Each structure stands twice: as structure tokens, then as C-alpha cells.
Amino acid sequence: MTRINYRIHEVDLMARMMRAEAEGEGKQGMLYVGNVIVNRVKAECLDFKDIRTVEQAIFHVQGGNYSFEAVQKGNVFYQRARTAEKRLAQKNLDYWRENPAKYSLWYFNPSGACPPTWYGQPFAGQFKEHCFYEPKPGTCESVYIGR
């Protein structure tokens, strides 16, 4: 059983996003980014109530901007997804989730240390340059339900 429903073209789109956002952080970093994408599809809360697909998660607009920097700047489309990234995306979609992104809905790459909260959401952990944040307890239970 997969973690979320998806269409085959979304594997490629997600793999391109993972590469654009975290290629410099290796396979593990790309998996964490992929996990945030899947969590946003699973979430039935906050800014993510109406997201039902990977494509909607990737092209989601918050505060007048695309949620992901790779979409804002257009670099999600600069590189094709390689077989390795497609395998990682498939792994995320099917079963993979791990801390610090296990329940995270947000991440960013700060210029300094990771702050303890980001837009009021608690810090979940760091991997290389990316800081991950999960929803406050009691605000988004759908993210914590496993599959």
C-alpha cells in the first residue's frame, strides 16, 4: 500500500523537485524533501487542506508565492529527473518516512543556525543545510497518521 495516491507523471515531477531542492545534500537530503511533499498531500490542515496530489503540493501558492523555492525560481525545470531520483521519489510515495522530516510540512535553508520555531511551528531537526519543521501538536493530526 502506498502512502498517498499518485499518477505516474508525478513521480517524475517529484523527482525533479527533490533534485532541484536538495541535490547538494545527497540521496538522504532528497528523501527528506520528498517526505515533506508527501506530508503536504496527506495533511488535512493549515495551508494544506485542499492539496490532494503531488502536483498540487509542488505548485501550491502561499502568501502570493509558490511554496517551494525551486518553483519560484524555475530551477525545478532545469534538469530532467534521473533514474536515481525517480527511485527515491517512488520510495517516498510508497513507504519511506524518517526523522527529521517524518512529520515535517516545512523546511528551509537559513543563512545561520536553525531557529527553534518557524512561523510558529516547532523545529523537528536538521540535515546538512536544511532545517525541518513539523506542525504544533494538536494542529494537524493527519500528518501523524502512518501508512
Q: Separation of termini?
A: 8 Å
* 3D shape: globular
Helix share, percent = 25-40%
**How do the helices and strands follow one another from N- to C-terminus?**
HHHEEHHEEEEH
The biggest sheet, with number of strands, parallel, antiparallel or mixed sense and barrel status, is: 4 strands, antiparallel
Secondary structure: number of strands: 6
Main β-sheet, spatial strand arrangement: 3-6-5-4
Assembly state of the chains shown: single chain
Task: Report low-confidence residues grouped into runs of 5 or more.
Answer: none
What is the count of DSSP helices, taking H or I runs of 4+ residues?
A: 6
* Structural class by helix and strand composition: alpha+beta
C-alpha Rg (nearest Å): 14 Å
How much of the polypeptide forms β-strand, as a percent range?
Answer: 5-15%
Mean pLDDT: 93
Give a structural overview.
This protein is an alpha+beta fold and 147 residues long. It is built from six helices and six strands, in the order H-H-H-E-E-H-H-E-E-E-E-H. The protein has helices at residues 8-22, 26-42, 54-58, 69-72, 83-94, 141-144, and strands at residues 61-62, 65-66, 106-108, 117-118, 121-127, 130-133. The strands form two sheets. Strands 3-6-5-4 form a four-stranded antiparallel β-sheet, with helices on one face. Strand 5 (121-127) and strand 6 form a beta hairpin. Helix 1 (8-22) crosses helix 2 (26-42) and helix 2 (26-42) crosses helix 5. The protein is globular, with a radius of gyration of 14 Å. The protein starts with 7 loop residues before the first helix and ends with a helix. The mean pLDDT is 93.
